[in-house]
Amino acid sequence: MHKVTVIGAGFAGLTAVRQLRKRSKDLEITLIAPRKELHYYPGIIWIPSGMRKREDLIIPLDNFFRRMNVNFHQASVTG
């Protein structure tokens, strides 16, 4: 079995997970990020107007990781 580690739970990292899983159901994918959540930064434009709060822009990734069969490792990568 091949193993892949993805660093970061932003748009690029989550897209990488989705594409890797699409290509192989047997691949062992581990994702490393400080938190198991996506911060939806494009939505911050709505915070000053009061249309959104910071909490509205945090998307939990538990279901995504379970659906994609990803091992999550909570950590920060420095180099």
Describe the structure in brief.
Helix content is 25%, strand content 28%.
List the helices and strands and how they pair.
Elements (H helix, E strand, L loop, with lengths): L2 E5 L3 H13 L4 E6 L3 E3 L18 E3 L1 H7 L1 E5 L5
Parallel strand pairs: 1-2, 2-5
Antiparallel strand pairs: 3-4
What does this structure look like?
The protein is an alpha/beta fold and 79 residues long. It is built from two helices and five strands; from the N terminus they run βαβββαβ. It has helices at 11-23, 62-68; strands at residues 3-7, 28-33, 37-39, 58-60, 70-74. The strands form two sheets. It has a three-stranded parallel sheet. α1 (11-23) links the parallel β1 and β2 (28-33). The longest helix has 13 residues, at 11-23. It is elongated. The mean pLDDT is 94.
End-to-end separation in angstroms reads: 26 Å
**Estimated radius of gyration:** 14 Å
Uncertain runs are: none
Morphology call: elongated
Structural class: alpha/beta
H/E topology pattern = EHEEEHE
Number of helices: 2
* Strand count: 5
**Helical fraction:** 25-40%
Spatially, the strands of the biggest sheet line up as: 1-2-5
Major sheet description: 3 strands, parallel
Determine the strand fraction and express it as a percent band: 25-35%
Mean pLDDT: 94
Give me some keywords for this one:
2 helices; two-stranded antiparallel ribbon; 3-stranded parallel beta sheet; 28% strand; alpha/beta; 5 strands; 79 residues
